[in-house]
Structure formats: C-alpha cells, structure tokens
Specification:
The chain is built from eleven helices and no strands. The protein is mostly helical. The longest helix is centred in the last third of the chain and has 36 residues. The structure holds protoporphyrin IX containing FE (HEM).
Length: about 230
Amino acid sequence: MNQSNAIGADRANYRATHSAGRPIAWQRLISPAIYIGGMVPAAWVFYLAFTDQLGADPLNVLERTLGLWALRYLVIGLAITPLRRITGLNLVRYRRAIGLLAFFNAALHVIVYLWLDQGLDAAAIWNDIVKRPYITVGLLAFTILIPLALTSNTAMIKRLGAATWQKLHRWVYLAAAASALHFIMLVKAWPPEPLIYAGIVAILLAFRVVDWQRKRKARAGVQRQLAA
Ligand code: HEM
C-alpha cells in the first residue's frame, strides 16, 4: 500500500466505524442481532446456574464462563482491523457492538465475583485484590474497559473529537493484554487455552504496532511532499 493509500485506508476505517455511509435496511438489523446473539452465552450460563445444571461448583463455572466470553469478544474486536487489512472483509461497523459485548460480559463476570463469590464483603475483596495478583490484573483490565464503554457512542465521539477518541480507545490493547495475563496467572498448571489466547492477543498487538509504524512513516512522507 502506498503512503496516501495507507492514510486513506485509515480515514475510511474511522468513517466506517463512526459515521459510515447509510446502511441498507437488512444491514441495520445486523448490529441488534450481534447484541442479542452475543448475550446468548451469558444468558444461557445464567439459566444453567439458576436451574442447577452447572455441576459441583456452579459459581466457579458461571464466573469463568463470563470471563472467557469477555476475553473472546475482546479478541474478536481486536481482530476486526487486521481481518480487513488482510482479507478486505470490512466488519468495522460492528466493532462497537463487539466491544460493548466484551464490556457487558466482563461486568457480569465482576458482579458475580463481587456479589455471589465474595458476598460484597469489602474486606474480603480488598484482601483478594492485595493477595492474588491475578485479581489485581483483572481489575486493571476492567477499569480500562469502563471509560471505553462509556465513550462508545456517537455523542461522545463528537464531544471528544476523533483524534482524542481514537487515542483513548487504544487502551483496549492494554486491557486485552491484561485480560490474557489474568487468565494465564490464575491457572496452576500450563493448560493450552490461556496460552492460546495470550498468543492471539500478542499477534494482534504486533500487527497494530507494525501498522502504526507504517502509518507514521506514511504521514511523514506526505508531510515531506507537502513541504517540498
Ligand atoms: C476485562 C476484564 C476481565 C476479563 C476479560 C477476565 C477474564 C477471565 C477469564 C478468561 C477467566 C478464566 C476462565 C476459564 O478458566 O475458563 C477468568 C477467571 C476469573 N476472573 Fe476474570 N476477567 C476479567 C476481570 C476480572 C476481575 C476485575 C476480577 C475480580 C475483581 C476477576 C476475577 C476472576 C475470578 C475470581 C476468576 C476465577 C478464578 C478461579 O476459578 O479460581 N476477573 N477471568
């Protein structure tokens, strides 16, 4: 991709996310379908919990399932840009829905932990945060997701301005890395699943770093051309 194409693609990416050309009728149904479909795993695991079908340790299964879905949605959200660059398939329009699904699942995961697991006992929660580093790292990930979720709407994008909004939303990479680390830290042995998620997050982060460098070079090139 040449320099001006790289910048053009960047702008197109941003427009596609936030103001995109008017979607046709059936396309307008996709986002609601993603929100509804995306909450099915959480709704299903709550149903299994309330109907006593989660085995010997239902609370742990409930907690873990919600955490896992939060991480899955974070990974899917991060994969949208690389997917577009590599295959041309543009799902940028749906990134907001995927991001909010990650947040909803993470919030439910945290609520289950605070309420059902710890009984809202502030002292026990504080002890856990201090004593179990994976809780601290999970908390870091969740804290980052809060402002991102609160600003995932068109009004906030307009209020903050595109550049500030984009800068703020880059924190999602740290949230994803912290979530993957949280998963690795809480396992006692070395099962493959947390390592697979960490590997995917690392690849997606590396992709973004390379992409940023390429865009920086492209911008510098355009500025040099304009100055010449
Ligand atoms: C973005 C935020 C977070 C994500 C993506 C996340 C993700 C996960 C994942 C993937 C698991 C393991 C699931 C499995 O084993 O299949 C997990 C477990 C767990 N997480 Fe989180 N988590 C987050 C935040 C938090 C926070 C803030 C807390 C507590 C304050 C927390 C507490 C726990 C606990 C207690 C477990 C279960 C540990 C056990 O089984 O002993 N998580 N989380």
